[in-house]
Amino acid sequence: DVYDSADDPVGIDPFVETEILSPMAQLEPEQEYSFGIHWHLARIRASEIVRVSPCAAVAAGLSVRREGGKLSISGSFGIFHAANLELVALLRNAKIQAVDQLGMTSPLEPCIVKATIADAPNLARVSLRLRDSAGRLLGTIDEAAVPDRN
Predict the structure, then answer these.
(1) How far apart are CA 135 and CA 88, in angstroms?
(2) CB burial class (10 A; 0-12, 13-18, 19+) of residue 49?
(3) Alpha-carbon distance 16 to 24, whole Å?
(4) Chain segment 69-92, per-residue pLDDT in tens
(5) How many Å apart are CA 71 and CA 94, to the nearest integer?
(6) Which residues have C-beta within 8 Å of that of residue 4, sequence separation ≥ 6?
(7) CB neighbours (10 Å) of residue 50?
(8) Is 7 helix (H, G, I), strand (E, B) or coil?
(9) Ramachandran angles phi, psi of 7, nearest 5°
(10) Torsion angle, CA of 97/94/53/60, rounded to 10 degrees?
């Protein structure tokens, strides 16, 4: 959506000013100090954000429910990169049981995850990850423990 401040009844200015603070550094005369910062945007309501990972703003963290012989997985995120989304099922020994490709995601749209995967003995957790177009891992968005069987 394009924001037009002319339609805003309170006349909110569409520009934002931010200020970043560097880590403290002791400098002698004529010395310089610099630091890097990365800015990312994602489409998600600020009021929904509960935490931020290196890959996404998390609105509803990844959750896992057992339903019969399947695992129902859900979550809501604002993703920082246009990338391939994958759901990884991990065993108790940290070995990968399965990888499900969930498709492309984009910072331009909220990322709502609703997936069902097969349950298996010794599953410990699921991990939601991003990969670039070359298949390189960009990072983990969120992880959740698989609940114990009752």
Answers:
(1) 14
(2) middle
(3) 25
(4) 899 999 999 999 999 999 999 999
(5) 18
(6) none
(7) 10
(8) helix
(9) -85, -5
(10) 50
